[in-house]
Amino acid sequence: MRKDSFNRVRGTMMIAVLMLITVGTCLGQVSKGGGRLVGTWDAVVRITDCNTGNVLNTFASIASFNQGGTSIGSTSGMPQAARTPEHGIWLHVSDNTYLFKFKSFNFNAMGQPTGYAVVEHAIELDSSADTYYSEGTAKFYLLNGTQVGSGCSEADGTRMTF
User: Fold this and answer.
1) Of 30, 54, 73, 101, whose CB is crowded by the most CB atoms within 10 A?
2) Which residues are paired to 65 by β-bridges?
3) What global pTM score does this model have?
4) 141/144 Cα distance (integer angstroms)
5) What confidence score (pLDDT) does residue 72 get?
């Protein structure tokens, strides 16, 4: 009987310690800039030539970076009927530097899926965490996973506020 009570108390204490470690880690990430990306951002995306950096196309985009490292976004660069929203993940690297990656599916004019794109960018927040610059790559795939293309892009983002 005493052993069961001791094991319950010990188990409860271990859970409490694990919760404190988890909360401490999360708070530490926020204080070091880890939670500063969380929010909804308007962005101007520029598709660039990977070799020269010349801008090939410019369009508006919107993304929400959620607490816990997930994201969702949409773009005006392609009609919504031809592309799903962007679903992705993000990671705090250090200070004001973050990485994000998202995937979206593409469809032809008949509404049939044709492939998908995976975009990866590095983000650098400004000191106020109200604007950012990002740059990275896109890879384009057929539904079977065969890569059929790639490209480069950069973006300037502004936090959405009231």
Assistant:
1) 73
2) 39, 71
3) 0.78
4) 8
5) 97
Burial of 136 by CB count in 10 Å (0-12 exposed, 13-18 middle, 19+ buried)?
middle
Q: What type of residue is 64?
A: S
**Domains in the chain: boundaries:** 1-31, 39-159
Cβ neighbours, 10 Å, residue 14? 10
CATH classification number, 39-159, choose in 3.40.50, 1.10.3470, 2.40.128, 3.30.70: 2.40.128
- Quick: pLDDT tens for 131-153: 999 999 999 999 999 999 999 99
Q: 154: which 2 tokens?
A: 């950069």
Query: Token digits for 33?
Result: 């800039």
Cα separations in angstroms, 146 against 98, 113, 114, 117, 121: 28, 14, 12, 11, 21
The whole-angstrom separation of Cα 159 and Cα 125 is 10
